Amino acid sequence: MNARKVTINDTTLRDGEQTAGVAFTAEEKLSIAHALARAGVPEMEVGIPVMGAEEQEVIRAIAGLGLPSRLMVWGRMCEQDLAAAEGCGADLVNLSIPVSDIHLRHKVHRTREWVLASIDRFVKQGLDNGMEVCVGCEDASRADADFLLQVAQAAQRAGARRIRFADTLGLLEPMSTFERIRKLAEGSDLEIEMHAHNDFGLATANTLMAVQAGASHVNTTVNGLGERAGNAAIEETVMALHQLYGLDTGIAVDHFPEISGLVASASGRPVAANKSIVGEAVFTHEAGIHVDGLLKNVINYQGVDPKELGREHRLVLGKHSGTHAVMRSFSLLGIDLSEVDAGRVLKRIRIHASRTKRPPSETELKLFYAETSLSAQPRPGLFG
Ligand SMILES: CC(=O)SCCNC(=O)CCNC(=O)[C@H](O)C(C)(C)COP(=O)(O)OP(=O)(O)OC[C@H]1O[C@@H](n2cnc3c(N)ncnc32)[C@H](O)[C@@H]1OP(=O)(O)O
Ligand SMILES: O=C(O)CCC(=O)C(=O)O
């Protein structure tokens, strides 16, 4: 493993819950926080205190669990949100401020000078309140890059520990992410946290490039939940950091299937069968060449080892199967099939798959075998 460490700040309980239509109960929030902490997630963003007393109570309850993970709360960079964050028991507050001219002009009707002055004022105030401060740069990807660097330097001068680069609309691609994060890393000594959205399906890729460029922290959500197309999925990001970059996150990946199921059920957002890492079908193989290769040696077709996740390969029969797969399935049923018989049964399996769109059951396989071997018997001839 590479000695460098990347810290996961999981925002399932904040941005994840911002998914339209999702609202966790207090119990669900507590059990998700517990599950994330058990897996070793070092930081989590747990809510938005300014939403009101109920939200604050849940945040306090999570803080009261005494989990080993550090807790962050989200607020706008203003008096009201900072006041609401006080007394919630969080270790860090993320004070968000729009940094693109588009948001400044068309959303908050303010100037770049207002941004710099607010950072100076509210970062100090947050520190005085006893919390570590992260400056959340909303719409950072559409901000002027030189101005964004000024923002980072102002945050550093004011005493912030970290800056969050939010690709709020998921508009970046990996190369531009690299350039933007590299500029911030070279121009400041702050921790840099990447917050990616998945509107072009690039959230995980952009997060990885941010790490390559110097980001020390990354935001993730379980199953990639989050606004619109969601955020970078924790299971993808962590597995990729470990396996592709050799970077440790301290997270036990075998917890992902359970956490994924928990969040899918609490959010009412089922996980697609082909969802990387946690999807039900991502270690299932049907294609003849793949199954034959796996049977010879898993190294042939195994990119991610399912055992790491407490899962295993599953081989199924279907339209794209080959004879080796058929012979193996029958040998598991205690029947030694010749290659010729396997070829005959395969024809039946293909017809079955197109009709039913599912693998055959054991009973159906035995029936196919009985039918094909019967039809293969030499018919009694005139003299037979
Ligand atoms: C990109 C993101 O994910 S940011 C996180 C977004 N998350 C959420 O919005 C979920 C929780 N939100 C809420 O509960 C509410 O929106 C609240 C409590 C924050 C605010 O509620 P309301 O006061 O009713 O305002 P409303 O949501 O309608 O409008 C947002 C207001 O915040 C202002 N605002 C937005 N960002 C900021 C900011 N960083 N700093 C200061 N003000 C801001 C807007 O300009 C607008 O105020 P205005 O009417 O003075 O123009
Ligand atoms: O400003 C921030 O903290 C980031 C907010 C956010 O979720 C986003 O911009 O996508």
From TrEMBL:
Sequence ranges assigned to domain Pyruvate carboxyltransferase in this UniProt record: 6-257
Source domain of life: Bacteria
One Pfam family in the UniProt entry: HCS_D2
GO terms assigned for molecular function: homocitrate synthase activity
EC number per UniProt: 2.3.3.14
Swiss-Prot/TrEMBL catalytic activity: acetyl-CoA + 2-oxoglutarate + H2O = (2R)-homocitrate + CoA + H(+)
Enzyme category, top tier: transferase
Transmembrane regions listed in the UniProt entry: none
Record keyword Iron present: no
Matches recorded under Gene3D superfamilies: 1.10.238.260, Aldolase class I (3.20.20.70)
Gene Ontology biological-process annotations: carboxylic acid metabolic process; nitrogen fixation
Keywords of this entry: Acyltransferase, Nitrogen fixation, Transferase
Keyword Translocase assigned: no
Function statement: This protein is a Fe-Mo-cofactor biosynthetic component.
Family classification: Belongs to the alpha-IPM synthase/homocitrate synthase family.
NCBIfam families xrefs: nifV_homocitr
Name of the protein described by the UniProt record: Homocitrate synthase
Organism in which the protein naturally occurs: Methylococcus geothermalis
Organism taxonomic ancestry: Bacteria, Pseudomonadati, Pseudomonadota, Gammaproteobacteria, Methylococcales
Gene assigned in the entry: nifV
